[in-house]
């Protein structure tokens, strides 16, 4: 199976689908799944934007992509989505409407739940393994959403921080095998001393998945060998514009492709083809 990987999208969800459809056309292959590592930018109501998102939307309206394209059914968006068939599964970042997602999660007993009227975008619950099957092949994913409260935080119960019931699920995982760890935050101390989530570190040490994909750290594309000796860690670049270049093209390293058969047969590559440069801040919506 073919799986596209993205990290921080910050509202550019339709762009994500357009890039995946373009990859299919260029390669002649089909994508089966998209995994996204948080900060999808889920804000169905602009009155509930957080301060950082409000600030960014003043320069770039594409930050409001969920509000404009996915909060309500729109025929032009449905037409664009109909060009592909794969689901997009994400974990929560720290820039989402957490209370709105909480309400949807509480209504679902499944590991994933739909958040859009087209039923193409699904949130993966923290600490609940999910197995995706396609064509006789299977891959199991565990997600850890939100971020850790910084040391000394006076309000560690803020919705953007990992919640007690999610921690309880992680500590109750028990004996389970999974292939991919999908998180927004990084493991504690893996990028910057004193920053990151301790539970991500514990999961990596205990379960040794094949890959760990995460976002949040504002690094460019980064590849690391985890200290557990098994897991390869990728921090994908944010899906946003290089404002230092003329035309504001996409920054490189924002999209990857995992080709997966089983734990003994897989490859991962970063998409860096010339056609990506066509998708600039001013042109991406108009590219068929």
Structural class: alpha/beta
Radius of gyration: 18 Å
Kindly report the average pLDDT value. Answer: 95
> Helicity, in percent?
10-25%
Report strand %: 15-25%
Biggest sheet: strand arrangement: 4-5-3-2-1-12-13
Number of strands: 13
What's the helix count?
7
Uncertain spans: none
Distance between the termini: 25 Å
Please describe the biggest sheet, giving its number of strands, its sense, and whether it closes into a barrel. 7 strands, mixed
Q: Judging from the principal axes of the Cα atoms, what is the shape?
A: globular
Textual characterization of the structure:
The protein has 288 residues and is of the alpha/beta class. The protein has helices at residues 13-27, 51-57, 65-70, 75-81, 98-106, 164-171, 198-207; strands at residues 2-6, 33-36, 88-90, 112-114, 121-124, 130-134, 137-144, 180-183, 211-214, 222-225, 232-235, 256-262, 265-270. It is 22% helix and 21% strand. The chain has a seven-stranded mixed beta sheet with strand order 4-5-3-2-1-12-13, with helices on one face. The model has no long low-confidence stretch (mean pLDDT 95).
Summarize this structure briefly.
By secondary structure, the chain is of the alpha/beta class.
How would the blueprint of this fold be written?
Elements: E1 2-6, H1 13-27, E2 33-36, H2 51-57, H3 65-70, H4 75-81, E3 88-90, H5 98-106, E4 112-114, E5 121-124, E6 130-134, E7 137-144, H6 164-171, E8 180-183, H7 198-207, E9 211-214, E10 222-225, E11 232-235, E12 256-262, E13 265-270
Parallel strand pairs: 1-2, 2-3, 3-5, 7-8, 8-9, 9-11
Antiparallel strand pairs: 1-12, 4-5, 6-7, 10-11, 12-13
